[in-house]
């Protein structure tokens, strides 16, 4: 069983301890979140990030908010509204908050705090189990992919970070990679930097710690590698999958999907059921988070003395657009890897019906 090297989040009394992902990969720093506002800030500033982990953190955020004994409807409504506003695209956030609401709403006020901790813990444990199941199903899929070179490792390209850091378990897109490596199936990963926030560095950090061979590439190198057939498959995570299969994920995903499609390379999206949004008909209806210009202007890293700092790239007066996600049309998606199995876009409607039943 996969155990997170460091828990991405855990309860600590009436608070929550999270791994601060804005300090990675340079420093491993945990942060205690003692109030609703702390949790909301940690999500919106991306100390806690990745769709499944955002959902888990939001669920714990409700528990933190109610821990003071304030279990009245007004306190519950306030906590749900504050957390719901933190990040708009990852549907796991709304999914987790709706589930907390449904669990708590009909309870007597004095029973809500205990129930909130229990439900948040259940969401966290289920997320870990879903990741493990995605890993097992994805491993079966990886075994079917053709390798372009005789006797060499399977080459997988990924984008952003959909590993253990983004979940309460072993990750989504990286779960099949971890499962394959545990089984001795050689896998090598191409990791795109993922400007502007460079979550690819988180992926590289995870893979290095696990001893998995990987190569960091500038985002713009992906097209050439795919065109040359130097990659056997692309695996990415998702933040929201519309009813027709259009998939929102970290900005840059769409370009990889286009290049993979042009080169006839499989492009799979790995995500738990909580990332599917039957209430959103198609990609055009997905709200794409716009983030601050500063994220484009500055890079973070270590200077020559090993001190952590930020460096301005863009000249004063520059303007930037910073959409955090893009939407890959379903026609470019070879299939979905979920905890319930692997299926193609044409099977999505049936899958959503089964999930609802
Ligand atoms: O903005 P982020 O870093 O939260 O975005 C993360 C992604 O886009 C991931 O690919 C997605 O959330 C899936 S994580 C298992």
Summarize the structure in words.
By secondary structure, this protein is of the alpha/beta class. It is 36% helix and 18% strand. It contains eleven helices and 16 strands. The protein has helices at residues 36-44, 51-66, 73-84, 91-104, 112-142, 175-182, 200-209, 222-227, 253-262, 294-297, 348-356; strands at residues 9-12, 15-19, 30-33, 154-158, 187-192, 214-217, 233-236, 240-242, 247-250, 267-270, 276-277, 298-302, 308-312, 325-328, 335-338, 341-343. A seven-stranded mixed β-sheet has the order 6-5-4-7-10-15-16. Helix 2 (51-66) packs antiparallel against helix 3, helix 4 packs antiparallel against helix 5 (112-142) and helix 5 packs across helix 6. The relative contact order is 0.12. The structure holds 5-S-methyl-1-O-phosphono-5-thio-D-ribulose. 5-S-methyl-1-O-phosphono-5-thio-D-ribulose (MRU) binds at residues 49-52, 90, 160, 162, 166-167, 171-172, 199, 237-239, 249-250, 324.
Topology:
Elements: E1 9-12, E2 15-19, E3 30-33, H1 36-44, H2 51-66, H3 73-84, H4 91-104, H5 112-142, E4 154-158, H6 175-182, E5 187-192, H7 200-209, E6 214-217, H8 222-227, E7 233-236, E8 240-242, E9 247-250, H9 253-262, E10 267-270, E11 276-277, H10 294-297, E12 298-302, E13 308-312, E14 325-328, E15 335-338, E16 341-343, H11 348-356
Parallel strand pairs: 4-5, 4-7, 5-6, 7-10, 8-11, 10-15
Antiparallel strand pairs: 1-2, 2-3, 8-9, 9-14, 12-13, 15-16
Helix pairs in contact: 1-2, 2-3, 2-4, 2-5, 3-4, 4-5, 5-6
5-S-methyl-1-O-phosphono-5-thio-D-ribulose binds next to helix 2 and strand 9.
């Amino acid at each position: 069983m996969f155990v997170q090297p460091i828990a991405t989040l855990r309860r600590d009394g009436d608070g929550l301890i999270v791994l601060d992902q804005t300090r990675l990969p340079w420093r491993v720093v945990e942060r205690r979140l003692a109030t609703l506002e702390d949790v909301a800030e940690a999500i919106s500033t991306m100390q806690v990030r990745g769709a499944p982990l955002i959902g888990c953190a939001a669920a714990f955020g409700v528990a933190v908010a109610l821990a003071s004994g304030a279990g009245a409807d007004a306190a519950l409504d306030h906590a749900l509204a504050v957390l719901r506003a933190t990040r708009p695209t990852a549907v796991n956030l709304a999914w987790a908050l709706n589930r907390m609401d449904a669990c708590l709403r009909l309870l007597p006020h004095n029973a809500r705090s205990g129930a909130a901790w229990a439900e948040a813990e259940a969401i966290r444990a289920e997320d870990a189990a879903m990741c493990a199941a995605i890993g097992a199903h994805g491993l079966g899929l990886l075994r079917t992919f053709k390798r372009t070179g005789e006797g060499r490792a399977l080459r997988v390209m990924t984008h952003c970070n959909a590993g253990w850091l983004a979940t309460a378990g072993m990750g989504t897109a990286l779960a099949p990679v971890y499962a394959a490596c545990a089984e001795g199936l050689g896998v090598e990963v191409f990791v795109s930097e993922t400007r502007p926030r460079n979550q690819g560095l988180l992926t590289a950090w995870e893979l290095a710690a696990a001893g998995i061979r990987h190569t960091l590439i500038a985002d713009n190198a992906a097209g050439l590698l795919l065109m040359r057939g130097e990659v056997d498959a692309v695996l990415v995570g998702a933040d929201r999958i519309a009813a027709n299969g259009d998939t929102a994920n970290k900005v840059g995903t769409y370009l990889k999907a286009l290049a993979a499609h042009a080169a006839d390379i499989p492009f799979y999206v790995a995500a738990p059921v909580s990332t599917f949004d039957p209430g959103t008909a198609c990609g055009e209806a997905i709200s794409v988070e716009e983030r601050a210009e500063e994220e484009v202007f500055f890079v973070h890293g270590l200077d020559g003395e090993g001190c952590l700092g930020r460096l301005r790239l863009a000249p004063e007066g520059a303007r930037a657009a910073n959409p955090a996600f893009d939407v890959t049309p379903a026609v470019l998606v070879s299939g979905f890897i979920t905890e319930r199995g692997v299926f193609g876009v044409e099977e999505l409607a049936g899958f959503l019906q089964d999930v609802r039943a």
